[in-house]
Amino acid sequence: MRLLIGQTGAPTAVVNASLRGFLEAAEGHEVLALRGGPDGLVDGRLTPVTLADVPPAWTHRGGSWLGAGRRAVTGDDLDAAVATLAEHRVDGVALIGGNGTMALLRALTERAEQAGLPLCTAGIPKTVDNDLVGVDHCPGFGSAARYLTRVVPDLARDHAAMRAIEPVRVVETLGRSVGWLALAATWHREDPAHAPHLVLLPEVPFDRADFLRQVDDALHAHGRAFVVTSEGAARELTDEPFEAANHTRILLGGVSRRLAALVTAELGVAARGEVLGMVQRSAGALAGDVDRREATEAGRHAARLLADGRSGLMVGLHRVGTGPYTAGYDPVPLAEVAGRTRPVPAPWRTTDPADLGDFHDWLTPLIA
Questions:
Q1: pLDDT tier, 240 (very low <50, low <70, confident <90, very high otherwise)
Q2: 9 — alpha (psi -120 to 50), left (phi > 0) or beta?
Q3: Whole-prediction pTM value?
Q4: Catalytically annotated residue among 129, 136, 216, 352
Q5: Does the active-site annotation cover 129?
Q6: Domains of the chain in sequence order
């Protein structure tokens, strides 16, 4: 078989592990690399690739060996992509990405079928936002979460030292529509004295008066208020393009600074807003072994699906049993995943980190 492997959307710290896993399992098949994300698919940027072309060191680095990108794909784009696949005699396509990528892959599957092109398709899950349906958690999320559990407590310690001149600090994580990473930033089991006092999620409607009251309560109880917020929380305070099609407009962040300004204006105390930004998804040096291993396995399973002639599926990821943490991988129909977003479950939608013990239990094996 002639297989194509590509990535769309943003990189993660372990996305290159999925690429190597795919190439390992695709041994004996001819593989082409899609370079440059959806633009490369439309423009025909396909080049031969072997496992030897992707050094193992890349699995410990951020960025994407394949290149990445986003595009609001049109019907004409799909026709061009199908023509490219036919021209290169591609039998199977695997795309690494999130819910937008799975929507693109499903559309490509349907367009190829309409054009009479025999084509197998498989999705490899990847997103730091952890908002994919069909997985317990998503490759890429564990490393971003691990980064946050390492650096946010240090930011809290720094804040405790500086409370006299900076009583309030607001730290902003990624997460335009879901709060999984903001919740991860509340993990504090190795340093309970420096746990965040408040967390803001997109799933919990922002209440200005309640937010100010909670900050004021923390100031009186602790002499400082340390807040974690998702970039998509309190979105009414910003003009960020949260609803841009396929995330094709850049989010610059900044809700933490707007919240800090609100605190200063209303409570009369100094406040700082910190935007952690892209380092959360790119810090290969702090990527987790569990996450790297699972990203590799997701790539391997995708290659096997294509080699077996299966199509229209994404590699799922679930927890096996109730004993020591083990991951299992079962395919999920793209129709159940494409374009859908998995929010934080209702029991974990809270502004109080003290209510998140069950979430921290769920997270702990992923960041070890």
A1: low
A2: left
A3: 0.94
A4: 129
A5: yes
A6: 2-139+286-336 (3.40.50.450), 141-284+344-367 (3.40.50.460)
